[in-house]
Design goal:
The structure holds two protein chains of two kinds.
Chain A lengths: L7 H11 L4 H5 L20 H12 L23 H7 L2 H4 L11 H18 L3 E2 L6 H16 L3 E4 L5 H14 L2 E4 L20 E5 L11 H9 L3 E6 L18 E5 L15 E5 L11 E6 L5 E6 L21 H39 L4 E2 L7 E5 L4 H10 L6 E2 H4 L8 E5 L6 H14 L1
Parallel strand pairs in A: 2-3, 2-4, 4-5, 5-6
Antiparallel strand pairs in A: 1-7, 6-7, 8-9, 10-11, 11-13, 12-13
Chain B lengths: L3 E3 L4 E6 L2 E6 L1 H7 L2 E5 L6 E2 L4 E7 L3 E5 L4 E6 L2 H4 L3 H4 L8 E5 L3 H4 L4 H9 L2
Antiparallel strand pairs in B: 1-2, 2-3, 3-9, 4-6, 5-8, 6-7, 8-9
Classes of the chains: A alpha/beta, B alpha+beta.
């Protein structure tokens, strides 16, 4: 259809079709107070260059991530991404490829997905991984649904250390599926007794490590308790770099490991697109959502890649699909794979150490500041501060001084009475100067 | 091949004592093509005639196998986990799917016998 503004004739025809006299009669049911009776007071049209100027002025009011000392995390992390990553993903073969419907033709895409899965399985300590979910939060919801399918039970227990938005996504999906969710209250100190809550009605327990407040958790006793009751342990992470240093969830008995891959290869992207990582045990592979790229040989015996176990509705399982995930974050997964390949195993460990060291240095400095309490006994690159004041207001005051200090817990848990808590993340991008700026802005803003 | 009964959905049933061996017919496996996975029910599952008993996944599609009669699953063919292709190779023998304890023996009477099924196939 070509676009033309409506003419009076069009309007008359439409009104006649629905059987009203004029547009006043059309809007008659709406209360008069909600109707605008005068032309909108909008500025006249502007030229392109004028619009550009106006928008640039507006954009300059933002404090951009790379422009000031930056300590924001809570599920989205600023890391250095080598220029090579961006260069390679922009190759048109990768950039323009959509979900492979005739997958065997897209050998390059399939091979990178295969490498991606291999990396995710190695990182998480699991046997199989799929070829990327949308992001960590929806991946977590998919893990819960998978646990329901595997156990025949329909109730999940969510740890109070789970990222609040991840918990919300699980609750939303569960509501639609009429499954039930048991929530633990937000766990600031990492002392919640999940094990006491595990019984034979649960399909799974969902635990994050490092958790939303930055605490590291030993999943082993929780996994044992789950297995005693026939439930599965779903282990979640929001910071993939942590896997370069910490015991992988698979080694602690997790049955399904899900997390966010944004930290590796991907920038903050204004909150998305991100890339979900999803791994499990071989015995559960048939109930895994999404799809798996596999290695095979072609008619001439040469190494070739195929899409196998495509348990999605677009492929052979159709209405029997394990999930309705319809595409994946393929380009983000590719960026992840390229970055991780460039780092290598030793490089990832070094990067993780650098993150941890920077965060420890910052926490040590902050612990000296009067009135500030660092709540964590242990952490990776993120920890929680208890402040003598409202965290959200403090963050605003520090932003005005050119430091983005972190995420106030009240922003994600507005009604939890945790207004004095601030989640602070530090990565390899933070310099000693950044830390000094943080401490000095904090002292001036308290 | 005596004592075999068939459904219009191409399942077969073979009475062995008080149990019935259930699988899909040779015609069905040919139609499906290479079978890559068989999703079998748990032992102890109770099924009613016509309800979903198993899912067979071939390279073309995933298809339901319906229970030919009402009963309880008392054994599943565990060998199919490693070798789903047995369904292609010998659907009536090594490629059987489940054994049912038949709840209402009368139901088998309504199923086609071998000649009936052969005539039915000609109408397709």
């Amino acid at each position: 259809m070509r676009y033309h503004p409506l003419s009076d004739v069009d309007r008359k025809a439409m009104l006649a079709t629905i059987g009203v006299q004029d547009s006043a009669a059309l809007y008659a049911p709406a209360p008069a107070s909600t109707l605008i009776d005068a032309p909108l007071d909008l500025p006249r049209h502007k030229s392109e260059i004028e619009v550009e100027r106006a928008l640039r002025k507006l954009a300059a009011r933002n404090v951009a991530a790379g422009s000031v000392p930056f300590f924001i995390g809570a599920g989205a992390y600023r890391h250095h991404v080598p220029a090579t990553v961006d260069h390679l993903i922009q190759r048109s073969e990768f950039l323009t490829s959509y979900t492979p419907y005739q997958p065997e033709i897209s050998q390059g895409t399939l091979q990178t997905l295969f490498e991606f899965q291999t990396q995710v399985a190695l990182l998480t300590g699991m046997e199989v991984a799929n070829a990327s979910m949308y992001d960590g939060s929806t991946g977590t919801a998919e893990a819960v649904l998978m646990a329901h399918r595997l156990t025949g039970r329909r109730k999940a227990l969510l740890s109070g250390g789970l990222h609040p938005q991840y918990a919300e996504v699980v609750r939303t999906i569960s509501r639609l599926a009429e499954d039930s969710v048991a929530d633990m209250p937000p766990d600031v100190d990492c002392v919640e007794d999940l094990i006491a809550r595990i019984d034979d009605t649960l399909s799974c327990v969902v635990v994050q490590t490092p958790d939303f407040f930055g605490h590291l958790r030993d999943l082993t006793p929780i996994a044992d308790a789950c297995h005693r009751h026939g439930a599965l342990l779903v282990a979640v992470f929001t910071e993939a770099v942590s896997l370069g240093l910490l015991t992988p969830p698979g080694a602690m008995g997790a049955d399904i490991v899900v997390g966010e891959g944004q930290s590796i290869g991907n920038t903050l992207n204004f909150g998305g697109p991100y890339v979900g990582l999803f791994a499990t045990r071989q015995e559960f592979v048939r109930q895994m959502p999404g799809r798996v790229a596999g290695e095979s040989v072609d008619a001439d015996g040469r190494r070739a890649f195929v899409l196998t176990l495509s348990t999605r509705e677009q492929h052979i399982r159709r209405d029997k699909a394990t999930s309705n995930i319809c595409t994946n974050s393929g380009l983000c997964a590719l960026a992840f794979t390229i970055h991780l390949t460039l780092l290598g195993e030793a490089g990832l460990t070094r990067l993780a150490r650098l993150n941890h060291a920077n965060a420890v240095a910052l926490a040590d400095m902050l612990a000296q500041a009067p009135g500030i309490e660092v709540l964590n006994q242990s952490f990776f690159n993120e920890f929680t501060l208890r402040l003598p004041c409202d965290a959200a207001a403090l963050v605003e005051r520090m932003a005005a001084k050119g430091v983005l200090a972190g995420v106030p817990v009240s922003r994600l848990l507005p009604d939890a009475g945790l207004d004095d808590l601030l989640v602070v993340a530090s990565t390899e991008t933070n310099t000693p100067q950044d830390r000094a700026a943080f401490v000095s802005a904090l002292k001036e803003s308290l | 091949m005596t004592g075999l009964r068939f459904t219009k959905d191409h399942e077969y049933l073979r009475i062995e004592g008080d149990t019935a061996v259930v699988g899909i017919t040779d015609f069905a496996q040919q139609q499906l093509g290479d079978i890559v996975f068989v999703d079998l029910p748990k032992v102890g599952k109770k099924v009613t005639k016509g309800s979903e008993l198993a899912v067979i996944e071939s390279v073309k599609a995933a298809s339901e196998v319906y229970a030919p009669v009402t009963g309880e699953v008392i054994e599943v063919n565990a060998e199919l986990g490693e070798k789903p292709a047995l369904v292609n190779e010998s659907p009536l023998d090594g490629g059987w799917l489940v054994k049912l304890r038949v709840a209402t023996p009368d139901e088998t009477a309504s199923l086609m016998d071998e000649d009936g099924y052969a005539s039915f196939l000609k109408t397709l």
